[in-house]
């Protein structure tokens, strides 16, 4: 999540809650959310927003969630007034409003008990993440279905997380996990930045600033975790930048959370990235020029979040 009215750094850090994939794929060695009874369900008190005519003045679309709840998109005026809300994630660009959907279907894997191909509800799942305009036109396949390996058996799962968005830019993490027979785990994580107005953005690593200094900082902090009894010595390994995601602090200024990863022993795997690896996320205030338009939260969003402190912001755009 990008931020919340009640939190500052952490919500920005781990929540818009953002590592390297296809377009910016990183890695080989190996990613989201029960509201209490006092929570007001805005979806029961506000009208659902459909396809509207061209608005008389700009509107803000922000998507987010309440703790433990599903994602919803809120339509907000420039002065922070709620205009509508609907379930799901919708993002506005110059071409229109895009809906984010993740389609799921069972995966076909080999059974650990029979040496035959078997379709089983317990076999796992594969996904396809698609962004399309509200009328279903111009679909963009952001993440394709993974293909279970033919040389191993056991449950196979693919998961996709939309870590956040800034205007047309989607920050996407994909995780593919195979629980092989005999507890043989294979897990691969990938990350990409997808531009709804220009497809995948491959050069994100080269546009982020201050990376070398952050790499060394992460290296030192990971080294501090080392046990002298460890068989390996990863101190010489400089962590790689594998993922990044946007976050907004209490001031409403845009920053990024950068994830750095290096390989490690299986017993020290921390599950943040591909198996086996260890990772750490650090904040960066460096702002690539392409994100200048989102460098500061609009006053309307700031006021809206202040009025609805249970909502965590994950992304926003302007209609």
UniProtKB/TrEMBL annotation:
Keyword Signal tagged? yes
Respond yes or no to whether keyword Signal is given for this record.
yes
Identify the domain of life.
Answer: Bacteria
Signal peptide per UniProt: 1-23
The protein's UniProt keywords, in alphabetical order, are: Signal
Task: State the name under which the record lists this protein.
Answer: Uncharacterized protein
């Amino acid at each position: 999540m990008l931020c919340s009215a009640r939190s500052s750094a952490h919500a920005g850090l781990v929540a818009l809650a953002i590592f390297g994939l296809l377009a910016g794929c990183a890695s080989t060695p190996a990613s989201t959310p029960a509201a209490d009874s006092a929570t007001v369900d805005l979806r029961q008190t506000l009208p659902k927003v459909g396809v509207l005519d061209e608005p008389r003045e700009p509107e803000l679309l922000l998507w987010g969630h309440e703790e433990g709840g599903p994602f919803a998109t809120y339509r907000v005026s420039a002065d922070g007034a709620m205009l509508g809300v609907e379930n799901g994630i919708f993002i506005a660009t110059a071409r229109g409003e895009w809906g984010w959907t993740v389609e799921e279907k069972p995966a076909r894997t080999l059974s650990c008990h029979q040496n035959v191909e078997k379709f089983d509800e317990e076999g796992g799942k594969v996904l396809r993440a698609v962004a399309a305009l509200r009328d279903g036109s111009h679909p963009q396949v952001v993440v394709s279905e993974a293909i279970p390996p033919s040389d191993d058996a056991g449950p196979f799962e693919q998961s996709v997380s939309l870590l956040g968005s800034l205007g047309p830019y989607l920050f996407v993490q994909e995780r593919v996990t195979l629980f092989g027979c005999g507890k043989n785990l294979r897990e691969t994580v990938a990350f990409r930045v997808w531009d709804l107005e220009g497809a995948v953005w491959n050069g994100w690593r080269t546009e982020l600033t201050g990376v070398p200094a952050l790499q060394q900082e992460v290296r030192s902090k990971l080294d501090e975790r080392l046990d002298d009894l460890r068989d390996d010595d990863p101190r010489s390994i400089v962590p790689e930048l594998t993922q990044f995601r946007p976050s907004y602090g209490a001031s409403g200024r845009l920053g990024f959370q950068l994830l750095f990863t290096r390989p490690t022993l299986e017993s020290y795997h921390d599950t943040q990235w591909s198996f086996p690896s260890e990772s750490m996320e650090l904040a960066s205030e460096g702002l690539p020029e392409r994100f200048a338009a989102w460098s500061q939260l609009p006053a309307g969003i700031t006021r809206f979040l202040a009025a609805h402190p249970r909502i965590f912001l994950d992304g926003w755009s302007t209609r």
